Amino acid sequence: MGTVITNGRAKGIVLRTGENTELGKISKEVKSTVKETSPLQKKFADFSHKVGLITLGLAVIVFILGIIEGNKLDEILLFSISMIVAVIPAQMILILNVNQQRI
Predict the structure, then answer these.
(1) Angle at the Cα of 93 (from 91 to 95), degrees rounded to 5?
(2) Average pLDDT in the 40-50 region?
(3) What is the pLDDT of residue 76?
(4) Inside any domain, residue 25
(5) Rounded Cα gap, residues 12 and 16, in angstroms
(6) Measured between alpha carbons, how far is 70 from 76 in angstroms, rounded to an integer?
(7) What is the DSSP letter of 70?
(8) What is the mean pLDDT of residues 2-18?
(9) pLDDT score for 21
(10) Considering the entire predicted model, what is its pTM?
(11) Which of 24, 44, 75, 82 would be 19's cystine partner, CB 3.0–4.6 Å?
(12) 65 in a structural domain
């Protein structure tokens, strides 16, 4: 296994190095494991995706309504983008709290 020497004198014979040692075998197994997402992470990703799509849809509706009402294009675009940026971070705290309470 692994050895740590802080001081003194010794003689030794090296039998194996790198991945051929016991620590190397453990390291190799850890590297080969596949990281799976938990059910909570899957639900969080799914819900975040849905919130993102709904927000994007609402921004498009606001943009279209702004054009129909005759507002300036740059103002409508700025408002729509601002709405998207404002909604996403505000919803993340809510999503995390709801998911934590279900556990």
Answers:
(1) 70
(2) 80
(3) 92
(4) no
(5) 12
(6) 10
(7) T
(8) 80
(9) 84
(10) 0.54
(11) 24
(12) yes
